[in-house]
Amino acid sequence: MLSIVPEISPDTFSLIIIPVFIFFARICDVTIGTMRIIFVSRGMKMIAPIFGFFEVFIWIIAIGQIFQNLTNPLNYFAYAAGFATGNFVGMLVEERLAMGLAIIRIITQRDATNLIDYLRGAGYGVTVLDAQGKQGPGKVIFSVVKRKNIRDVEKAIHEFNPKAFYSIEDVRRAAEGTFPVAVPGPTPFHAHLGKVMRKGK
């Protein structure tokens, strides 16, 4: 009886398949490791250990293949390339998920009424303090936002106070708070621009 599956020569398996396997295994375990670190920093005690288990399990398999094929330099290259690629993929996945909260501090020397009104109108919790800087009086604006809304707030800053200084930091844990209600459609910033354009007409 003829076999439909083609036979793979030992040389092909050693020189091609094993390095490719090591490469993708490293991508998986480093990506999972990146996510695990993020979960640890967020205080997610139940999820982080699960990711840690799969991270180490895949790593053991990959390093085992290295030790079984020490004479093939492609394995070392695949191991290093998989590690580098895994870091990049992990950061992309983290950006897509955009989990957690961030605090945005905005310092502006000019009138920030429009920016404050926009942020509050869009549903963001805003705290405003009077400040005195080198160039005179100003405002310090604090807002804790979901990480997926950071770009919306940044667009509003560039639109209403383009020269304002602002910084963004991750928040590990927060209680209560005011956040925009998630609804289908454009972001709060684009919805606000649409209202402005309609009024202009």
UniProtKB/TrEMBL annotation:
It is found in: Cell membrane. One of its GO terms (cellular component) is plasma membrane. Keywords: Cell membrane, Membrane, Transmembrane, Transmembrane helix. InterPro entries: DUF2179, DUF5698, N-reg_PII/ATP_PRibTrfase_C, UPF0316. It is a multi-pass membrane protein. The chain crosses the membrane at residues 12-34, 46-67, 73-93. NCBIfam families: PRK04164.1-2. Belongs to the UPF0316 family. This is UPF0316 protein SAMN04488571_10398. It comes from Methanoculleus thermophilus. The lineage of its organism: Archaea, Methanobacteriati, Methanobacteriota, Stenosarchaea group, Methanomicrobia.
